Each structure stands twice: as structure tokens, then as C-alpha cells.
Task: inverse folding
């Protein structure tokens, strides 16, 4: 992703809100953006990947369920660290309960 742009998205136990976030996100031009999704383990974690597959089909994304609970600080930090470790020069950091405007990626 050298020179690229990334979006990090974290979530836990609220796949219905995750769906809403992705629905708002895909209203944007996501060409050239890599989306890294990090989900905390829990009883609803398995519900997140099918939602991402449905709504992000054809886009550059990576979704992972963390091996352990990282928490409200470490999960976003870890996702952002992964993005910059892959060469991102700009990152938009989201959580599963945020809606974005359709021009959020037009920076």
C-alpha cells in the first residue's frame, strides 16, 4: 500500500451498527483506499465477515477477528499500526457505530 490511503474500522458485538457504517462508507469513492477491519472476539464476531463480504465485494479490504480482546484503545491502535506498517500515508479511523458522509474520502 506504499503511498496509499487506508481506512481502519474496529468493532465488537454490534454487527447491525457495523452494517450501517459500511453502508455509509460505500457511498464514498473508495478507489485507492485499503480498508482494514479488526473485530474483537465475542459471541457475535462471526457475523461481521459476511457483512463485509457482501458490502465490500470488489474493494481492497482485510477483515480479521482478533485472537484476544484488545480493548477500546488497543484495538484501534493496532489497526492503525497495521495500516501504517503496510505503507499507508493517510488513515481514516472509524468504529462500527459511526456513519460517514458520502464525501468523507474526497480529501
Result:
Amino acid at each position: 500500500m506504499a503511498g496509499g490511503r487506508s481506512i481502519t474500522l474496529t468493532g465488537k458485538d454490534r454487527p447491525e451498527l457495523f452494517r450501517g457504517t459500511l453502508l455509509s462508507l460505500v457511498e464514498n469513492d473508495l478507489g485507492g483506499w485499503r480498508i482494514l477491519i479488526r473485530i474483537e472476539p465475542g459471541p457475535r464476531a462471526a457475523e461481521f465477515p459476511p457483512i463485509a463480504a457482501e458490502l465490500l465485494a470488489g474493494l481492497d479490504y482485510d477483515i480479521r477477528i482478533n485472537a484476544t480482546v484488545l480493548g477500546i484503545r488497543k484495538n484501534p491502535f493496532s489497526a492503525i499500526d497495521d495500516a501504517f506498517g503496510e505503507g499507508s500515508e493517510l488513515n481514516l479511523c472509524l468504529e462500527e457505530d459511526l456513519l460517514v458522509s458520502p464525501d468523507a474520502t474526497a480529501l
